[in-house]
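Sanity check

After download, print the first record. It should look like this:
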Amino acid sequence: MTHPKDLTVHAAGCVLWRRSPVDGELEICLVHRPKYDDWSHPKGKLKRGEDPLAGALREVSEETGHSAEPGAELPTMRYPANGRPKEVRYWAAEAGAGTFVPNDEVDRVLWLSPTAARGRLTQPRDRLLVDALLESLRLA
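Expected structure tokens:
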């Protein structure tokens, strides 16, 4: 019999941030996934044996087109997804160079102030990550 832990879906992502090119204020990147019609932080399932941080940075690149410089690890989110436990590890990450190109998985990205990001996020649990980012950057 397999242990229930083996059924856990492992994923990783980043709360991607930058300084606004306009006024230098903090902006957070949210991605829109047409499949779920939701706004979330860039994240995705880990490949077999993939290091969680490497996976988080890969997902940021795939979903936003940006490179990212990882910072503090943020709280891990655990919740049921399609009848299985899901565990998503997150890191704060400063956006590097890159350009977003819409794809099947993500059709839009937005750079928003922390307040606007909190309001736009579909899942309430994702709002906690905005607060954790601010705390990690000591901007709270």
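If your output differs, re-run the checksum step. Summary of this record's structure: Helices lie at 52-64, 114-120, 124-136.
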